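pinging the channel bc i need a second pair of eyes. not urgent but kinda urgent?? the chain im working w is below, pasted from the shared doc
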Amino acid sequence: MTSDARRDQRRADLRSWLVRYRDSLRWNLPYWPMMVVNVAMWGLLPAQRYFSDADLRGIGVLQEEWKTIRRELDEVLEDREGIPGFQEVDPGQRRLTDDNSWRTFVFRFAGRDCEPNRQRCPETAALLDRVPGIYLAMFSILEPGARIPLHAGAIKGLVRYHLGLVVPTGEGCWIEISGVRHTWAEGESLAFDDTYPHRVRNDTDSVRVVLFLDVERPMPWPWLGRFNRWVLARLTASKRIRTAVERAERAAT
């Protein structure tokens, strides 16, 4: 590649980055005031990166019934191309993905249910209903070659939970949390605090799917639990969340 071609490529890359950054600011701005309030919890909670099933009320039923969930997922994947990219459901995710390499089949998004998808997978929906405090639930589908860059969540009051459903063999598919690399296994769970920096890669030629949840974090004091639920309820009521669920519903019909 000539020096002129490299310069043009750098300019194109910069323009693409600026567009994604602008979109990220525009879509995430409604979240920011609530994030400022939410930051108050950071100094009150212990520095705990990982969680067990015992830490999260009722979550064990999902691992026990993972094959039931997998059966319904297999039916969903028959029309994988029709499942929207994450940024199509929530344009605020363009900072992480701007193509359809990360697809999402949404059951609940930030506290709002996506009824068409729940009806399409009724057994999975019924299992999710048995777990209290689920704020977000979806099949997270990484296409071959997908890469999610290093990022960190802002909501300290949630725990990120993954249940492996379809996992490529080998070591080319992984999530790295604070520099520590993990792989998934079918029927096994991984729960962590997503405010720690993490990134994901699927450098294989197979799809990877996990049941992806955000669950209310266990709190050391009842008053902090009430405050956390108040914060989450304000986010659920935002226009951005209503619009995202509407997009997911349109994609399902």
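so The longest strand covers residues 134-142. and The mean pLDDT is 85. — does that match what u expected or am i reading it wrong
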